[in-house]
Amino acid sequence: MTSRTLIIVSCAGAIFASFAAAQSTGGLPNGNYIPHLGDIMGTMQLRHFKLSFAGKLRNWELAAYEMDRIKESFQDAATLYPGIPVSDMTVMAEPVRRLGEAIQKKEPNKFASAFSEMTAACNGCHQSIGRGFIVIKVPTSSPFSNQVFDPAARP
Ligand code: HEC
Questions:
Q1: N or C end: fewer C-beta atoms under 10 angstroms in the chain?
Q2: 99 CA from centroid of ligand 1 (Å)
Q3: Model confidence over 131-148: pLDDT tens digits?
Q4: Under a CB-based contact definition with an 8 Å cutoff, are residues 102 and 139 in contact?
Q5: Which CATH number fits domain 35-153: 1.10.530, 3.30.70, 1.20.120, 1.10.10?
């Protein structure tokens, strides 16, 4: 093994070790990486999109998965940024509960109405917190050409 290969191999080892550390500390490597609220929200926007398309195409397995990820983002935002109004965070609870139910029962109409309700709650908080210029809407087309959302098209 050349010394260059050795360096590459040991760097990869360090990266995997830090992933392992991140997992054991609940996602915060060494306990000192705190994502910016804007970054948590950017991720939330991504999940909001994927959840919408999964539900629209009745890919309930994927929808349940994305729903869990969106809940994680809410938890991260609420835990790491307690300054954001709790009341605005709790208004998400009801739409999230209804979305979960629609996914479990595989009901597209209930999913669509709960999804619109959740989207309105996203904007409600943005308005109340002086970020009314960040307007979220139910997506109509996919910016992702690298992921399949239609369960029928699954390889
Ligand atoms: C309880 C309050 C609250 C809720 C609920 C909320 N947001 Fe936010 N959001 C914020 C705040 C505060 C910011 C501004 C963050 C900053 O400037 O650092 C923000 C910023 C954003 C941004 C801008 C980030 C960027 O990189 O452009 C997006 C997108 C966003 N939110 C999406 C969402 C979506 C989607 C939902 C609902 C699924 C949601 N937010 C729900 C408080 C909230």
A1: C
A2: 19
A3: 999 999 999 988 888 899
A4: no
A5: 1.20.120
Confidence class for position 152, pLDDT limits 50, 70, 90: confident
Are 108 and 59 in contact by the 8 Å Cβ rule? The answer is: no
Pick from 124, 28, 126, 123: nearest CA to 80: 28
Ligand 1 pocket member 84 (CB < 6 A)? yes
Task: Please give the average per-residue pLDDT across 44-57, as a whole number.
Answer: 96
Test site for ligand 1: of 134, 135, 137, 138, most ligand atoms within 8 A of the Cβ: 134
Ligand 1 binding pocket includes 129 (Cβ within 6 Å): yes
| Position 37 confidence tier, pLDDT thresholds 50, 70, 90 | very high
Contact 125, 85 (CB under 8 A): yes
CA distances from residue 70 to 10, 13, 37, 129 in whole angstroms, order as listed? 34, 30, 14, 20
